[in-house]
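Example 733, ligand copper (II) ion.
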Amino acid sequence: MSLPNKNVFFYLAATLSLLALNGCNGGHLATGKNLRSLPNYVVTDQHGNKLRFYDDVIAGHAVVLQFMYTRCDGICPAATGNLVSARRICLGQGGSDLRFISISLDPARDTPEDLTDYSRISGMDNEWILLTGKPAEIEEIRKALGAKDPDPVLDSQRSSHSAGIVLGNDKYDRWAMISGLSPGSAIARSILRILTAI
Amino acid sequence: MPGAAGLTKALRLSDPLPSPGLTPFVSPLPIPMNAQQVAPFQTVGVTPSRFATQSPIYHKIIAEERLVSLHPQLPLTRIWGYRDAAVPVSTSGLGPTFITTFGVPMIMRLTNALPPDHVGFGHPFLTTHMHGAHLEQRSDGFAENIGPFRPVTAPGESYDLCYNNLDPGFSTGEPDSSDRPSTLWYHDHVLDFTAQNVYRGLVGLNLCFDQLDTGDETQGLQLPSGAFDVPICLQDRRLDALGQLVYDPLDHNGFLGDVFLVNGAVQPFLSVQGRKYRFRMLNGCNARFLNMRIVSASGAAQTYSQIATESGLMQGPLRDQTDSFMSPAQRNEIVFDFSRFAPGTVLYLENNVDQPDGRGPRGTFDNPRFTPVGTRFLKFIVGDRVADPSRVPDILRPFTLDYLAEVPAANRLQFQFSRRNGVWVINGESVDLHNPIATVRLNTPQVWTFKNNSGGWWHPIHVHLEYMHVLTRNGRTPALNERGAFCRRDIVTLGPNDEIEAFFKFRDYPGRWLIHCHTTEHEDAFMMTCFDVIA
Ligand SMILES: [Cu+2]
């Protein structure tokens, strides 16, 4: 008998430990898994703070993520405007625990100061988190969040970058993507829906 | 293994492992139970139409998490499913099957008993759509709460739905009895999470009968009935080593699985008698297009008669067919005659569409690519030849062609489906279900053009409320299995750059209705819009 493939072995062991963990935790068995993991790279926010992307930004939170870059003269201004208006609606409807996060797709150029300026010009409030970082790592984060195109040409063009808004509720490992081109009111309804996990 | 960057979760699953290998054809094809009527109850917010002449029947359905066996070599799989409240436990991968007698209204109370603290993909907030039904807006399973209607139920809540089962045109004294469904399905439809919830298992069937399609093979059309009228719900899944469902909620291209289920079982078998069978095939996959064939052990395609699309019986059967191409959510019904095979013969129901990813098959709608070897979903083992009173008559449901006279003066609208910055837009607009893209008058002829401008992507476009008569495909008369004068459709498939013209008349029910792609991942990424029908 041949030894199991190392990956399969890891997978099995991890799945079993997950089962065991869930078993002690109120009797919930693994109910099917998200095929998803998020990188935990160190990123920089608009104040220059170093944050671990998963541990410090996402973990335990309900998050709304968009992708932008400060020099974008394509869809960013409109999409950011929609999201800012969605944020205002959410704040009025019990969404104050939400984290709104903008991730720069031009991290090589976007400095914390650029991000601060962008947040002020766009009308983002002080709680809004804007992130930049090492280009290759931001690229991995973008792909892990599903903001990518299966067409490699489109995927490589910053001008055609994703207008998707990623909605996540980490506590429940619940994720979806909606369109940043929709009006703020429609975006807000979807955001509030994913937060009503309980 | 985790590098310097570390990983958030214990598992790195971004390169999915193939699902565990399973021995095919070891368990019999499950047939979901018929829903049982319950005593009439006090409904909330619904009453059958005053045009209904018969008393309604009542059902109570519970949406729950449960353990089911997909295959004997796997541990039990935790799914979400509909259960008939009249039974204490369900082990079925599908919900109960409704049996509709046309003209008899049905009232269904849907109770959401999903776990509120659920972790993982899926969202335990439900709105239930009876796909293909002609019905009031309140009961259509609208994708979000809107106006006076609150169809989205939280765990612990219930919602009553009413299906009048009246012929379109009933309210104007022109009921069109040729416009009746035969195989409907019900599924969750909540905005942003339909793909995840349907993939978790919130799916069931509804079989419709009337004085022609009687469900009794000695009467009416005499189509095969009873044990010889078999639903075939085709689904693909991905499983981990412990048999649990695996899904990536942040892959929006369209899910493709590598495990193939029929009626909730992985590659089952069906022992058949040497006679005719009616197979009601539903493409229950999120994003996989299917071309279903019945082949011999050596792969030779065997002929059958197609008798219905998702919008009911066709005017007549299409005989000597070998291929049934179905987009997600489409239904094709066929009659297959096993009496021509010797007892002991083995046949397979297989799909041979060559589809590399969720964008769609290789090739075009008119010329899709097929794989040299098909993927087997179901094995048939032919038994002894038996007496067979069933028939496939030359005329199934006679169609009125009155609509053709209404085409020239019809109101014309165009819907262009495009991809912009990684999201979907329809006529350049991103979805807002509080703002309809169009408003049309009740009972007025409409010719709508659907145009796919989204590059290489395929989109099965579904319009709620009414079936369509397809007039042209890329400027030409479509093939019989989607030609409006021969059959109707509730989904029209837009292959790359396709353009379809279809005739509609929205009768009886003013309200707000959805148009969306039924590749459910596209739908959830906002490939959806709505239109208003006003009196
Ligand atoms: Cu689509």
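Summary: The longest strand of chain A covers residues 62-68.
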